[in-house]
Amino acid sequence: MSALSLKRPRVRQPRLTSKPQNLEPKNGKDPVEVTCRIKPPDNVDEDHCICAFDLHTVKLIPPATSFAFRNGCGKEQYYKFQHVFNPEATQKQVFDQVAKPLVADLLQGKNGLLFAYGVTGSGKTYTMEGTPDNSGIIQRTLDAIFNTIQDYQAQRCVFMPDHMNGFDIQTEAEAAQERKAFQAQSNVCKTPRTPRQRTVDTPVLDIPMRIPDGSKIDDLNEDNVYAVFVTHIEIYQNYIYDLLDEASGNGQSHRGFQAKVLREDSNHNMYVHGCIEVEVKTPEEALEVMVKGQKRRKVATTNLNLESSRSHSIFSIRVVQAPLDVHGEEVLQEKAALSISQLSLVDLAGSERNSRTRAKGGRVKEAGNINNSLMTLRSCIEVLRENQTGEGHRMVPYRDSKLTHYLKNYFGGEGRIKMIVCINPNAEDYDENQTVMKFAELISEVQIDRATPVAQTELWLPPGRRQANKFFKSIRKKLEEEGENVMNMEMDTSIIYRLAPAWPSLNYTQEDWEGFFDMLKTYMRKRIHCREKAQASLPDKIAHVRTRLLDLEKEIVYLQQENTSLTALYNNVLAKNNSLEDRLFNEEITIENLKKDLVKYNKLEEELKAVLEERDLAKNHEERQKQQMKDGLKRKLRDESEKLRREMMKSLEEREKNLKVKTYQAQVLALQEVLNIKEDVPAFSSLQQELGQPGSSNSKGTSFPSKENCPPEREDYYLRGPAVCDQRYRSSLVDQHDAWLNHCPKQMVPMGTALQPILNTQKVVTNVKKAHLEKNTITNYCLTTQDQDSQGEMETRVYKGDVLPTAGGGSQVVLKDVEVHKQREIQNVGINKSLPKETPRIPTESIQERCSTGIQFLARPGYHSP
């Protein structure tokens, strides 16, 4: 043994590639594998609606109580499957046929999905979970995994979840510290928890005695270390809950759980954020997690008096594997070398009508949500099928349901999908089974992209590192037992990859010489065979190395060219950066100058603002003084106006009083002239006394002037007759000393209206010229027009105004009055101009009546006395 070379050379760590290449091109597709399992009938003597026709076909027979039979569609139907399990099939057969290939893919770094589909009571939960004495798919899957990786597991806490659907690799020292903290917590509580993950050390729940499965997966990479993590979630009413979460939340909660959210990691894989992942080292630890979640899930089912759970259960197993270093001792501290694979085992809720669930009240909503999620799953399958057949290019509605959103990556080609259709052969389930069969037929036609494994050999690590390290450790231990000094001994693992098996023992005696010689010959033959095999494979290895060298040389040339171009680009960028820095420096100087100018402008602005404020204050003071002066003048003007108004009102009242007396006098005289009433008539005398006569006084003391005593300006009163009683016609009595310019048409219709103006030195013109107004003798202007009114009678309008001189030496006319004259016929008055001068005496008894008639007649405007 001492002759062996135990020197270990220094081996350089291989460089890992950032993105491993795939072994196979991603151009193939695999169909969804659908198998059917028929549940044993509850009563063998009753009629059954389904049976196994052969290993790949089932026959559906409509019973007389089904809707299809009553509608006239009672034909037998056949459906094809990947495999059909008859009622006599065992759990072991189902696992070996369906789940074991998925376990092999899981250990090789591939993802997988297996879900059970069917109506309530069809055996889905039994197929997935089984019983204590007859394990289901989940228990057998865990047994197969740990049977395979039992000798290749990493120590606890070497792989830690990073809470972003990934894992971190810890060194042995860090892992030991984590385990120490875990052990300290495990002494306090039965279910300890590490700071970043939850683990289970000893079983907490009482798991019944079970018969483990002895399945084992071949072709395992022995140079890797493995760790298993499990999660258990459920989807209830389109919300996701973690069955391992013991803390109750404040938000949307169910059975004391807080609703979780779905997120997408950096590789576009969906995961449940905040979900607890438990690292397990034995099948019992994993089953404890599963049983605990099952119990918490079944409590609500019992409380709600339901025959089955109204939620989807998903039990996920994630296997994390990483290669050992070149010496085969420690885990390679490269996160890029990690391989994470996941197997999701889904137990879907029963698909059936609400009438079969016997749900009432809030349970109807639960059944509706379950059916909606299953319908969304069916819609996604239909869209996938249409897109693959070229009939449509629609977007798959994964986000319409939490179930399909969580399983989106599997349907996108990130793993292998299998489905177990569980069927209850009872006749009463025919209609529901027919719907399940149609969905199974639909999903079997969907093609999923084939997942490609990652090439582990691209790490350029020699195979057999673990066994070589184990071999040399055993040699070192043996030498140490023999008393050899192995403290500074180095081991050379290179000889493991080129020599035959270890030398046999050289101790022999004379008696067993022949046997020893035969053993040496056998050993030498093996060595010669290994040498010949190595020599035969040498050309291939040399060719492979040459090909690799050529590829490396090409890569070097390409990298040199790329380096040259990048260097030139870097120089250009550097020059541009320098110019930009110079420009930046100049701009900074400009900014500093602008800042100084800005300070000056701000100071100047403040000074101008101060001056402006002073001017505004002075202006406001002046405006206040002006306003006060204006208010004072307004008050003074208001007082003077009020004083003048009172004086004018007083004068106006006196004038109206005098005018009223004169009007009454004129009426009396008019009545006397019209009616020829003598003064000795008693009634007229009393009226004359009341109103007054010219030269006499009335009862109020007012005297009326006689014709002889009348002043010259009122002489026209006795020449033309009495004035109209309306006060606005008093302006017709013009001043006789004014010179008027009468502007009237050529032809005027003669009208006998009263109050015709008598103009002094009147000049009548039909066309006014400038020379007429420039004469100093003209002081007044009169415009006369004639037209018919609305009743067809003639109307005369007289516009009067003053002629005033202007500043330029001319004249202007300012109109200030208008008079309207009309002539109406006299009615209801017995006046006859052809009567003789001696008129019969009017009876005394009709004097008052005639006087009242005459007063009414004279009060009408536009009347001219005859």
Termini separation comes to 176 Å
CATH superfamily of the largest domain: Kinesin motor domain
What is the helix content? 40-55%
What would the CATH topology of the largest domain be?
Kinesin
Q: Major sheet: size, sense and barrel closure?
A: 13 strands, mixed
Number of helices: 17
> What count of domains describes the coordinates?
4
What is the mean predicted local confidence, pLDDT? Answer: 76
CATH architecture of the largest domain: 3-Layer(aba) Sandwich
Please give a handful of descriptors for the protein shown.
single chain, 866 residues, alpha/beta, Kinesin, 4 domains, five-stranded mixed β-sheet, 17 helices, 27 strands, disordered C terminus
List the helices and strands and how they pair.
Elements: E1 29-31, E2 33-38, E3 50-52, E4 57-60, H1 67-70, E5 77-80, E6 83-85, H2 91-107, E7 112-117, H3 124-129, E8 130-131, E9 134-135, H4 137-149, E10 159-161, E11 167-169, H5 172-186, E12 198-199, E13 224-236, E14 239-242, E15 253-254, E16 257-264, E17 270-273, E18 278-280, H6 283-303, E19 312-323, E20 339-347, H7 354-357, H8 362-389, H9 402-406, H10 408-414, E21 416-423, H11 430-444, E22 447-449, H12 465-481, H13 513-675, H14 682-691, H15 716-720, E23 739-743, E24 760-765, H16 770-774, E25 780-788, E26 794-805, E27 811-822, H17 847-858
Parallel strand pairs: 2-6, 2-21, 7-20, 7-21, 12-18, 23-24, 23-25
Antiparallel strand pairs: 1-22, 3-4, 4-5, 8-9, 10-11, 13-14, 13-18, 13-19, 14-16, 15-16, 16-17, 19-20, 25-26, 26-27
